[in-house]
Task: inverse folding
């Protein structure tokens, strides 16, 4: 299915992917009683604080992420991806790490798990990182910075 | 492996599959969504919408459970205050997200799609988290 006016959009795949992400968060919450916030869980796995879940569980979740992507790769026969250069990825990664640690979460913890329970902190955090994300891409476009290869 | 680790692994696998299926492991797709004033790609809104919709229902179910299936109690954030740290951190995160089109989940999931690029992103992300932790330990 395509979306009128947006020839590149994949609304059905997006919705199906979103439902899976919601189910994953549901499994974590109803099964282990925890928020599926990736930044906090990754920090926990790496021994950098973050989510208070058991370290073995944090590792299990982190290892599961690429395994899940592998399943979809096998089903679809590959996944498109265009990445920035290592230097740009390093700069972006550093900023994302500092930002998620200070802001107590990312798109999953705040955007999916927090907004859905109408947490004021998560709604404000999500609105904020959406706004600066929009502004960053707009500014880079205005400056003619093309980072994806 | 205890039951909670198996739950976490299953959650991770389903999460990673959702990210890959929804297109979030492709930074071009994510930057397309963040390009609100340019050639906007609304796909990510469907990903977010689908995930939030499922969780809105799950949060209605959760209070009816005395405890999680494989744990003694729920561990759910209780803070409600808005402080500069939350807003400043989120603002910074959005900048990093916009630059490369990657956030933590897709960065880790993409380790099997673009191993070198994703590894550079994830290692830098952990370094950033470590940096914050370091400055907080030695103020």
Result:
């Amino acid at each position: 299915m395509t979306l009128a006016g947006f020839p590149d959009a994949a609304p059905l795949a997006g919705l199906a992917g979103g439902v899976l992400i919601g189910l994953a968060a549901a499994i974590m919450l109803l099964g282990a009683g925890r928020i599926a916030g990736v930044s906090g869980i990754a920090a926990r796995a790496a021994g950098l604080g973050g989510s208070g879940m058991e370290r073995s569980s944090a590792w299990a979740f982190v290892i599961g992420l690429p395994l899940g992507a592998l399943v979809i790769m096998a089903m679809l026969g590959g996944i498109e991806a265009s990445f920035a250069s290592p230097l740009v990825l390093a700069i972006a990664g550093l900023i994302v790490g500092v930002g998620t640690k200070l802001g107590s979460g990312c798109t999953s913890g705040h955007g999916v798990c927090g907004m859905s329970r109408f947490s004021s902190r998560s709604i404000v955090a999500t609105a904020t990182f959406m706004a600066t994300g929009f502004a960053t891409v707009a500014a880079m476009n205005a400056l003619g910075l093309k980072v994806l290869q | 492996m205890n039951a909670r680790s198996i739950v976490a692994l299953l959650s991770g696998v389903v999460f990673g599959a959702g990210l890959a299926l929804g297109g979030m492991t492709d930074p071009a797709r994510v930057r397309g969504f963040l390009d609100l004033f340019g050639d906007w790609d609304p796909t990510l809104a469907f990903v977010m919408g689908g995930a939030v919709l499922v969780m809105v229902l799950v949060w209605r179910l959760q209070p009816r459970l005395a405890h999680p299936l494989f744990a003694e109690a729920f561990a759910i954030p209780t803070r409600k205050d808005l402080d500069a740290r939350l807003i400043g951190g989120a603002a910074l995160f959005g900048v990093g997200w916009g630059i490369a089109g990657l956030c933590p989940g897709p960065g880790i999931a993409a380790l099997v799609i673009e191993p070198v690029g994703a590894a550079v992103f994830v290692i830098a992300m952990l370094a950033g988290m470590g940096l914050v932790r370091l400055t907080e330990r030695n103020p």
